[in-house]
Amino acid sequence: MEKPRIENLSAHIPIDMYQVSGHGEIDPEKYLRNKWQDNQIKLCAEKDSTLNKILDAPKQERASLIKQALSQEDPEVQRKAAEMILCAPEQEQASLQLLVLEKIKQALSQEDPEVQRKAAGMIRYVPEQERASLQLLVLEKIKQALSQEDPEVQRKAAEMILCAPKQERASLIKIAFYAGLGNEIVKSPLYDNSNFDKERFKRKMFEKTGSETTLVGGTLKDKLIIRHVKPSAFLAWQKIYENHQVWKNNGFDYVPIEPIQSYRLNKKGLVDVFSGVLDLSLAQWAEVSGYMFMEELGKQKHNIISVLERQGIRHGHTHDRNFVLRFFRNKDGNSDLNQVPRLYAIDFDAAFSPS
To answer: Which domain of life is it from (predicted)?
Structure first.
């Protein structure tokens, strides 16, 4: 999107009308540098308005509003409308699902890889008996895209692997890895919905259950998060993280605990833990890879839990989303599919140690 020439705009601003006593000199260009985003913000507002109308409408009117939203060209509006089909009267849901089916077919026939990716993400909202044929169509689109030389097209294709037939995902993963897309596939989703860039440092609270987590931008994007945990939970986390000997004694050549880079006690009485970001979770890897390496990773998980229990550390929630992988990187920095990745236990916000 073309950015406005701010030097032309700032000359017409009555700066004294915006001056706040004690705030120092006004810098209109600092504000105007953001103006290029206005159209995007308006579009987002329009999307929210469309979807809020559906939620606020009487149930008998929702099907008509969902159809209107599905008829829009914006694939993101279509996806959110598809999510709301269950809010429509039950007798209307089947016809709405068929409409989503047609929208997906139309989108997959287009050349735009981003349109294809968003359409593939809507497959779950079509009638169950239609999903297999759509997954096969997505499979062909992925293969075609991965064979192209355009790295952006390849990246979008890699993001669609989860929408391909489960039995085909392992072979697609291998193709994508050998195309140099491994890091894109295995990266942590923590920053997926953030608008951070790597040029500026900024923070944002991350919505999750349990403790609060802060995402950071700038050069630390995708590398660091800040967890805000109770002191008792931090002490349990710290205790098992620092005890490298117990891990070595139990056959590990690394400490399989979410890495603590630094920490500090904040004014609210919580501990800010600066933690290194790893790769995707065990649950996500099982889905996207068709269970590649799952036997070895399952053994790692069992061993980690056993050590925690014997050391008196109660993690609180040792499900597969709280175990994350870290793939070995080759000399080019790409994830190596020839080695079983390491597994780490994360999210110690509910941890407890009796001692």
So the answer is: Bacteria
Tokens of 97: 């699902």
Q: What is the C-alpha to C-alpha distance for residues 262 and 15, in angstroms, rounded to an integer?
A: 43
Q: Which residue has the higher pLDDT, 8 or 135?
A: 135
**Which positions ≥6 away from 297 have C-beta within 8 Å?**
282, 285, 323, 325, 340, 341, 343
Phi, psi of 167, deg, nearest 5: -70, -10
DSSP state of 127: -
Rounded distance, CA 204 to CA 12, Å? Answer: 34
Half-sphere exposure of 33 (CA within 13 A, CB side): 4
Residue pair 53/80 in contact (Cβ under 8 Å)? The answer is no
Which residues in 207-286 belong to E strands, given as ranges?
A: 212-216, 224-229, 260-265, 271-276
224-229 and 212-216: which strand pairing? Answer: antiparallel
Tokens of 167: 């039995």
169-207 pLDDT tens trace: 999 999 999 888 898 889 887 666 555 555 444 455 545
Q: At what angle do helices 169-176 and 282-289 cross, to 10 degrees?
A: 100
Contact 103, 119 (CB under 8 A): yes
pTM above 0.85, yes or no: no
Q: Can you name the residues that pair with 226 across neighbouring β-strands?
A: 214, 274
Please, what's the b/e burial string for 73-105 (b: 16 or more CB within 10 A of its CB; e: otherwise)? eebebbbbbbebbeebeeebbeebbebbbebbe
**Using CA atoms, how far apart are residues 127 and 145, in angstroms rounded to an integer?**
27
Residue carrying structure tokens 């149930």: 59
